[in-house]
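[Solved] Which block belongs to which protein?

Original post:
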Amino acid sequence: MLRDKIIIELWENEKMNNKDKNKFNNAIVNLTNEREEIQKEIIKLKSYNTKMESFHKSKFGNIENFKIPIEMKEKIFELKEKERRLINNEIRNLKKVDINEDNIEDRLKQLEDNILQKITNTPSQSLNQSNKINNLIKNIDNYYTEYIEHRKTFDKISQSSIKGYNASFRYLKYFINNETEFTFKFFKDIQKKFTQLPKNFFKYSKYHTKTFEELLEIKQKENYETLNNKTINNHINSYKMLFAYLKYEEYIEINPLSDIQLLPEEKFTNKEEFTEEELKTIFKSDMDKEYINMCKISLYTGLRIEEVLSIKKENIKDNLIHIDLNDTSSKKHQRIIPIHQNIKECLNNQIKENKGAFLFFGGNIGNGVKNVGKRVNRRLNTIIPIKEKTFHSFRKNFSQEIELKTTAEERTKKYLMGHSQSKDITHTIYNRGKINIEKLKDCINQITYIY
């Protein structure tokens, strides 16, 4: 459609008179001036950002926590978009005469070359998307490294996130060959092929050293377990973000994944609470004392595993546990939990026994949550072999206990569970987010567990 539209415009250009041509030439001059002003603004913004970086480094000794203000990033993006629209607009409106159907493709390419040359006063370059894509494929490793460095600098992504992106990129490299073009069809095909790849694809050379066709033959013989839709969607989202960055940096004009649809994901089975008999079995088991104490604290506080592991010894004071876990998610990780009398002993034991600043193990630093989570769930599974019953089930027990066994207000229950109250105008506006500690204590003290 776009090609046809350009052709129609070119044919209509034969009617253009000298007055129109003069107007067009003046427009080219104005466009050049506008682009120069835009470039000056961008240079100013980047220069200011460099000064801010230097100031931050001189004050704090590093730039690890420095972030470009979102307003500045948006302004630079807005200026680049404005510049792009100016160029594209002139490409659409550039008038040429003496067009005939025999050489229309050559003239369209020449049209693009001429406008770029007039606007930038640089040697003629083709704006053809396929040429950009071909260049992109040749330098994909360099562009990917640049993208990761950008994310590390401005988004402060974690090592686990980088590991995930690297895994996705490794899959992408598996599918690339000399004839590859990064198009919507290419990624749609990858999405389908993902559904046929084995779960441990890169773990065994018998898989990742084979072509995709050879893999299908192996699948017929082995009937191996394939990647699930959630994993596939994670890879596709990684590619979508990568190519969004490449588009933003103007290495490409179109993100080939912008319209791709994600695969339907299986709904995870809801976690189930433990029965009274199961709780008795767990707390009478020979599971390591530190894990037992973790389970008991979660049962009496409703804390998530990352919150339990975030507790420092200094966070326990005045018969209260102060949760202050910095997190970018929508979960409420800052709150105060009164200490139930049934967990005072295990808290004191942990303070004495555990080395370091944290209450449990090495806290939630690095992969602490993931590793401890796996270990505690393995132990629970040997005691209660039901996959829907994990460490998170203690939180479910707590939720049901304060709902069914206490007379607490709804706001108090939400606060203790760490649920958002942003839509509660009374709590957020009139009470300014403050909470009555006595009401919290009253709720906690109504818990009737005997473990």
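(Second protein starts here: sequence line, then its structure tokens.)
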Amino acid sequence: MIWYYYLNYKIYKYYKLKRDNTPVFYAFLVTVVLFYLNLFTLVAGVSFIWKDLKKLGTAFNVITVMCVLALLNYLILYKGKKYEDIFNEFEIDSLGYKDWDFSIKIYIIVSITLCLIALIIADRINQGKLTI
């Protein structure tokens, strides 16, 4: 859970350094989008193998899951400004968490890459160029 908080902190700090007016909003939004990408990639990967999963992917189900993830993200860290104390701890002990910076970058890159791979595979399947 601390790694999740640190992910939010690094995104917050990135937007704060860019002198953006709403770094907290962007930290919230980016982490939610990363969760969505991971969920999409997981569901897409499983649906390539288990064809019945596509029936579960209705627009209502997808939007419901997305809203629940966003709400959980908000309740865990941002409700009542819990993030202020947590982010201050990271700021004070920045050297203690310096090793996590690489894993944050790798997580973001891998999340985007795997999502793009899932989209390419889905496109190939829909064009009939790939069968699974």
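Accepted answer:
You had them paired correctly. Confirming on the second one: The radius of gyration is 18 Å.
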